[in-house]
Design brief:
Blueprint lengths: L1 H19 L4 E7 L7 E8 L7 E8 L2 E9 L13 H10 L6 E3 H4 L7 E2 L2 E5 L3 H9 L2 E9 L2 E8 L6 E7 L1
Antiparallel strand pairs: 1-2, 2-3, 3-4, 5-8, 6-7, 7-10, 8-9, 9-10
């Protein structure tokens, strides 16, 4: 009987410890892309350990996915993998909802991208012709990190409301 109590106690402690290792966090809310908070942004990080967790970003408009992104979470923050905690995940995910990330294309897209523009490294994900079209058309944009020093710029043309990644920039 004494051994049975010991085994049950050890199993309880082991399962309690696994709960502490969870690095799951999600945030969902409406964001202003086409009008007054008309798009739903769902950002989540899931994994047993934060340095192994996966990041998912999904934007939906009228129940239709207009942009999605999935990648390992760790490269998005500069924290050493041994020091990565749930607090870092929460800060990153919550930052995806900050207002500066949502703007018009005319405000965010530079007139011309060069391979090296001052301290920014710019990489076009579409042709220069397509980039010029997005710059001229009425559209909205959103930006998020793909690495702790690199951001991805997504445009949402007003006509079809589907997100198109057009460039990545950073150090």
């Amino acid at each position: 009987m004494k051994y049975l109590f010991l085994i049950i106690s050890l199993l309880a402690i082991e399962s309690w410890g696994e709960e502490d290792l969870s690095c799951d966090y999600s945030h969902e809310g409406s964001v202003p892309i086409f009008g007054d908070h008309d798009v739903i942004l769902l950002a989540s990080v899931k994994g047993r350990k934060c340095y192994e967790a996966a990041l998912d970003i999904k934007l939906t408009y009228k129940e239709r996915v207009i942009y999605s992104y999935s990648a390992p979470f760790k490269p998005h923050v500069a924290t050493h993998w041994e020091d990565l905690e749930l607090r870092d995940v929460q800060e990153y995910v919550d930052s995806l909802f900050e207002g500066y990330r949502f703007t018009s294309c005319a405000e965010l897209l530079p007139q011309k991208l060069s391979p090296i523009d001052g301290w920014n490294y710019n990489n076009l994900l579409v042709s220069e012709i397509e980039y010029s079209k997005y710059k001229a058309m009425p559209c909205k944009s959103y930006t998020h990190q793909t690495h702790y020093e690199v951001h991805r710029l997504i445009v949402f043309p007003i006509s079809n409301k589907i997100g198109v990644p057009v460039s990545e920039y950073g150090l």
